[in-house]
Specification:
Blueprint lengths: L1 E6 L7 H18 L7 E4 L5 H13 L2 E6 L15 E4 L8 H7 L2 E5 L3 H16 L8 E4 L5
Parallel strand pairs: 1-2, 1-5, 2-3, 3-4, 5-6
Amino acid sequence: MKIGIVGHSSNRIDEELGLALLETMISRLVASKANTGDVEIVTGLTNIGIPKLAYQIADKHRYVKVGISAQQAHEVNCGVYPVDKEIIVGKKFGDESDAFIEYIDYLIRVGGGKQSAAEVKLFKEKCSILDRDVNKHLFEQAFELL
């Protein structure tokens, strides 16, 4: 079970609320699926905002942590989260979006900007092509910056 997480990559978020929202959404998704095998939390590798919180939840539950990002993740000052598997695609943020969507089975969006919106659109297209019910694979929650 590969759960992709997208959302605000910013230190201007309510981390307590973000953590609670993510924990609830991830827990419900995992609990709703029987025989899921290993759970992988897949997000953008950076150690900030929603990606950081998603990886913290993965650590808590001993889920596999996967980081899919562009080389730029190693060049920004927020650092990268120590993950179990790192996949680098392209140079600039956004270059990795197709690979990210291809890799995941489910998508959770908690806030976010243009890249998150673009990845949701790609994921909906993937669900359509694979004849999957998008309402059972995509979960979105509004979440504003502070």
